[in-house]
Amino acid sequence: MKYQIRHLTRYDYSGQATLSHNEARMLPRNLPWQFNLSNQWQITPAPVRMRERTDFFGNRVVYFATETIHDSLEVLVQSEVDIQPRPVQDIFSSISWEAAVSEIKAGMIRGDEECIEARLFALESPFIRHQHSLLEFAHESFSVSCDLVTALTDLNQRIFTDFTYDPDVTTVATPVHEVLADKRGVCQDFAHLMIASLRTLGLPARYVSGYMETLPPPGQSKLLGADATHAWVAAFIPGWGWLELDPTNGCMADERYIVLGWGRDYADVTPLKGVMTGGGEHELTVAVDVVGV
């Protein structure tokens, strides 16, 4: 399936800014099942410097600097991607979650590169801290000797069923334990909650940032800019790889999911961030379109 993506970010400032340095993680990764066919950038005011690099996690990062006096910054990225089916998830159903934790530890001792890399995603990170309430929440799905994939699927479904999507109750900085207590939030919150729950058990899980194709109600046209960036989870399966689950929608990732990048939590994959001189207060506008072609 091919998609055309239009991602517009605009900052309007209350005063004039004289200098800004920015990093954008808005280019889709190239993966065995995902191919980034083209990208076009339109930045206003035009940057004086712009270059692409790869970060610690393998994500594509574009740095740009603007030195023109400006009272707004607009970044438009248009991409085309080709998404193929992900690897078949049918070969790891016999491992218990406790055995998975033990295998990861044993793999690290053996020098297994996948287990060593995965270990990073079992540690605490800026937005995710180990707490006893999260351990109790996780154990409702991860009972003794429970099959790992069965438990992952159950946790994913519980968050989808028991929590309410509400964009007005949380911010980027809302702690995971508050999301657990209030049972409300957005995709970022639900991804953080699931990741935190898995890490308390010793299971590596990473935060995935990207897009998901959405369709309008029957008989209605799709509104311009109605889509948004999305967040979901990838859990590590020893000997197999990373299984992607979406607790916001209670499903596994498929051809509708387009990966921008991944990290320990949202802080590692913020779509656009930077520093500036001047500018005062700002108002942010984001519009995303994901269209199948």
TrEMBL record:
Q: Which residues form the Transglutaminase-like domain?
A: 179-249
Quote the SUPFAM superfamilies the UniProt record gives. Cysteine proteinases
| SMART domains in the cross-refs | TGc (SM00460)
Q: InterPro entries annotated for this entry?
A: Bac_transglu_N, Papain-like_cys_pep_sf, Transglutaminase-like
User: What is the protein name given in its UniProt record?
Assistant: Transglutaminase
